Amino acid sequence: MPYRRLPNTDAARIKALKIAIEKADNTDFQELQISTKVLNSAKGALKHFEGLCARYRQLYEIQVKANKSFLGKMKNARMYISHFVQVLYMSIVREEIKEKQLEFYELENANLIVPDLSTNEQLLDWGQRIIDGENKRVSQGGVPIYNPSIAKVGVMYLLFKEGYQTQKLHQKATQRAMDEIAKYREKVDKIIYDIWEEVERSSNNIPVEQRIERNREYGVVYYYRKGELS
C-alpha cells in the first residue's frame, strides 16, 4: 500500500484544496466523501490563502523593482564619496589642506586610505561623517573641495539614504506577508489532512486499487516506496 504525503509547497497546497473543492462541487451530496463542515473550511481557507500568496508576490515584485533603482543610487553614492575622500587626500599630500583637519572627517587614523564602503551601513555611516566634516571645515574658513563638491556628494548620499530607507520598508512589508503565509500554512495543512482522512475513511470498504484511484480524485497524493509497484 503506498503512503500519502501532504503538499510541501504553497502552490501544491492551493492545488490540493482546489482539486478537493472542485470534485466535491461536481459530486451529488449523497456521494460526497467529505463533510460539509470540512468542505466549507476548505473553501474559506483557499480564498484566504490565495489572497495571502498573491499579496506576497505583489510586494516581492515591488521590492525587486525598487531594488534595481536603489542599486544605481548606492553605486553613485559610493563612487562620489570615495572620489571625494581621494581628492581630500590629494589635497593633504599637496599641502593645500592641513593633515590635522582630517579630524573633521574622523579620518585622522586612516593612513590616507579610503574607508571601507562595501556595505550599505558603512556607506551611510561614512557618508554622513564626510559631509559633516567638510561642512565643519569650510565653516571654519577652509577652502571647499570641488570636483566633486560636497553639495553634489550630499545629493547622491541623500538619494541613497532615501532609497535605503525605502528598501527597508519594502523588505519589512514583504517579510510580514511571508510570515502571515507561514502562520496560515498550519491551518491549510490541517484542512488538507482532514479532507484526506475523511476521503480515505469513506473508501475503506473497497479494493485497494479502486480506493487509491477514487481518493486521488479528491487530490490525495500517494507515493510508492522503493520496490513497490506503481
Strand content: under 5%
Query: What is the first-to-last residue Cα distance?
Result: 10 Å
Largest sheet: 2 strands, antiparallel
Query: Helix amount, in percent?
Result: 55-70%
Major sheet strand order: 1-2
Number of domains: 1
Low-confidence stretches: none
Task: State the total count of DSSP E strands.
Answer: 2
What would you report as the Rg, rounded to the nearest angstrom?
A: 31 Å
Order of helices and strands: EHHHHHE
Total DSSP helices: 5
CA-based shape: rod-shaped
Overall pLDDT confidence: 94
Structure classification: mainly alpha
Describe the structure.
The chain starts with a strand and ends in a 7-residue tail after the last strand. 68% of the residues lie in helices and 2% in strands. The longest helix has 58 residues, at 36-93. The protein is an all-alpha fold and 230 residues long. Helix 1 (10-25) crosses helix 4 and helix 2 (36-93) runs parallel beside helix 3 (120-139). A two-stranded antiparallel ribbon has the order 1-2. The model has no long low-confidence stretch (mean pLDDT 94). It is built from five helices and two strands, in the order E-H-H-H-H-H-E. It has one domain.
